[in-house]
Input
Amino acid sequence: MSSPSAARRPLDGLRVIEVGQLLAGPFAATILGYFGAEVIKVEPPAEGDPIRRWRALKNGKALWWASLARNKKCVTLDLRKEEGRALLRRLIDKSDILVENFRPGTMEKWGLGPAAIKQSNPALIYARISGYGQTGPYALRPGFASVCEGFGGFRYVNGFPGEPSVRPNLSIGDSLAGIHAALGILLAYIGRLRGETGEGQVVDVAIFEAIYNLMESVVPEYDGLGLVREASGSTLTGIVPSNIYPTAEGKTIIIGANTNPMFARLCELMGKPEMAQDPRYRDNVSRVEQQTQLDAMIGAWTAALPQAEVLAKLEAAGVAAGPIYSVADMFKDPQYHARGLFETVTIDGEPLKIPAIIPQLGTTPGRTDWPGAELGEHNAQVLGELLGLSGSELADMQARGVV
Output
């Protein structure tokens, strides 16, 4: 793990206030903090962010927290109290970026909406993440990732024909919204640098829109031809061959030989070079019409060979193919280590690997300086040093539950 005194990062000098809980907003702030921003995470005093106790625990602490809350200064404020909101306002006024993912209207109810903040900090970039966005008839609906993945169209195409839709065992809607929020914040920051007034702006990210943004050609295909993209199991509609195939020991591999040259090389490997010139398989449009038959032929070939052997043959021939990895497989693979995708932090005196955050930058890379902090660990530093509260003031506020 790099030290805080290592090379400069692109967002050094920017201060981010993160309010809200769970995943979408915090993940956006994690990205910013990894690349140098000072992130101050504001949590409720009693229990903090629920992710502190979600999923796998070790010594009573969520291992996920070490990753998601890395590089963040954790402070506590009870935003249900006027004093807590006043302290948050002071923090916001000293910052460049605010990330919040409360239900729309919550920050306005507290007197902390964009219009109010603009009076004292017009340069602030105000990023808001919610299920359905800040406007529209559904804005006030609760919007967890699971629901928004369905509303955004992803769940409809994910699964097998004729069966209920399938959820990947990840909150991809939240993570995608966090990535879109980080992108929007950086675009707004560039706009602020280039603008004549130096003012910030609101970045409005809806989880369902982050999903919708990944839906490729479904909109023009429906509008232009009336086509509705359906679930297609392990295949990819309109692109052939691209599927999973069995191997001799019962494992599966993925082959994506959907360009004409790559398909020709696959045919050579299978001992059927003539297929590449057969009008039924000559181009992708033709292959789509023969998908079932073609997948059966490829599957029969792969099933006769061990996984390692068939993958070696495909790699040597320049055909895109690979295994389906678990996290245990990732830990064993040299490519993950060569790319620096595991970083080591120390939790309760023990080393713990957490994932590096991409993209990889050549001269100003991101890094993890420390894992997720304890609840309120940085109260004295942030509220004391940054806002100027004395030790007695902090002790009094803590006794009254403000911090």
About this structure: The chain has a mean pLDDT of 96.
